[in-house]
Design a protein that fits this description.
This is ATPase. The chain has an 8-stranded antiparallel beta sheet. By secondary structure, it is of the alpha+beta class. It has helices spanning 28-36, 38-41, 134-142, 145-166, and strands at residues 7-12, 17-24, 51-57, 64-70, 76-87, 91-99, 110-119, 122-131. It has one domain: START domain (Alpha-D-Glucose-1,6-Bisphosphate, Chain A, domain 4, 2-Layer Sandwich).
């Protein structure tokens, strides 16, 4: 596993946006699948020791993913992700909001814009996360979003190393 991969996390309060850029030592197709297929997402999309549990996912424009991050004690923190745009293997956009177990969103949420590119066998994922309010952005950061994102991306790094060997 390569250890010198890019990880950049920028908070721009003037635009109420967090920008995460991460490089992975895997080809674009595999990284795209990791972000867009339920069976792979549930293996990495939560900071340890939490796990991800998808109730359903329909990856298409207008479709959505309803999932929970589950603590070791069994506490569930649900979210709804609605896909608003998909350009295969280059970009997808979604709105994201925390929700209760009955899918009632806690608004406002945030708008996520994922961009994928590959160079020399490494795939870069750039994610722009726009929040409707500065208060929500600041709350997200205070809750440990940067640290949780770094841990989650490390999960993906490890999973991609395993999946790459299986190809």
């Amino acid at each position: 596993m390569t250890t010198d991969l890019l990880f950049d996390f920028i908070v721009d309060k003037s635009t109420k946006t967090a920008i995460v850029t991460r490089e992975f030592d895997a080809d674009l197709s595999l990284v795209w699948d990791a972000y867009t297929k339920q069976e792979i997402l549930d293996q990495w999309w939560a900071p340890r020791p939490w796990t991800s549990k998808t109730k359903y996912m329909n990856f298409e424009v207008g479709g959505q993913r309803f999932y929970a991050m589950v603590s070791p004690e069994g506490d569930e923190r649900w979210s709804v992700q609605k896909y608003t745009s998909i350009s295969p293997k280059t970009n997808f956009k979604m709105s994201n909001a925390f929700a209760d177990k009955d899918e009632n969103p806690e608004l406002p949420g945030s708008d996520w814009d994922f961009n994928f590119s590959e160079q020399n066998g490494k795939t870069k994922v750039s994610i722009s996360i726009y929040n409707e309010s500065l208060t929500r952005l600041e709350k997200m950061i205070a809750m440990g979003f940067k640290e949780g994102t770094a841990m989650t991306m490390k999960n993906l790094d490890e999973l991609l190393a395993t999946l790459s060997k299986q190809q």
